[in-house]
Design goal:
- The chain is of the alpha+beta class and 176 residues long.
- The chain has 2 domains: 123 residues, no CATH class; 39 residues, no CATH class.
- 17% of the residues lie in helices and 35% in strands.
- Strands 2, 3, 4, 5, 6 and 7 form a 6-stranded mixed β-sheet that branches.
């Protein structure tokens, strides 16, 4: 959706829409499915900038990082940013961001394209290591059995004697 900021100066712009986000655009293989994203919000003029405030909600199905099982997750997120209309600056190389630049989106003209903001929020709401549950035991490294269902039939390997002292400490900690 495109929002014409020149019209927002006189009256706040409110919207509510449902958008499809293609999985290919996320480039994250752990995302197995994504429901349509419903979001609503408003843009108001706050001279000399614009205040953009939105709330989005959707369901994502992710593959657990340990056991690879798919699990659904509800997501609700808020977005609040100031929008400043400024021509693009020619900066060569790296430049330092200042605190005043954080939370500000610079647009080159008085048209705001909301699709990149929505895609960015979906990406920011993806966990780095998705887990079906915090205590997920994962898969057996020998046979690939799901250890959440119980122990597999694999024989326990003997511990390398160099790690024996650490294993003894672990056992004492588990006993307490």
């Amino acid at each position: 959706m495109k929002i014409r900021l020149d019209q927002v100066r006189f009256e706040p712009f409110r919207w509510q829409e449902t958008c499809e986000v293609p999985l290919e655009s996320l480039k994250r293989p752990e995302v197995l499915a994504l429901s349509p994203v419903t979001w609503r919000g408003q843009v108001t003029y706050a001279a000399p900038s614009f205040h953009f405030k939105a709330r989005l909600g959707y369901e994502q199905t992710l593959a657990c990082d340990r056991c690879l099982k798919p699990f659904p997750e509800q997501v609700a997120s808020d977005l609040e940013v100031m929008i400043s209309v400024a021509p693009p600056q020619r900066v060569s190389g790296e430049h330092e961001l200042h605190e005043k630049d954080l939370g500000v989106l610079f647009v080159p003209d008085e048209t705001l394209e909301t699709e990149p903001l929505l895609l960015e929020q979906v990406l920011l709401n993806l966990p780095m290591k998705p887990l079906c549950r915090p205590d997920c035991a994962g898969l057996c490294k020998e046979c690939g059995a799901d250890l959440n269902l119980g122990p597999c039939g694999c024989e326990q390997k003997t511990i390398d004697p160099r790690w024996g002292a650490l294993a003894a400490i672990r056992e004492r900690m588990n006993d307490n």
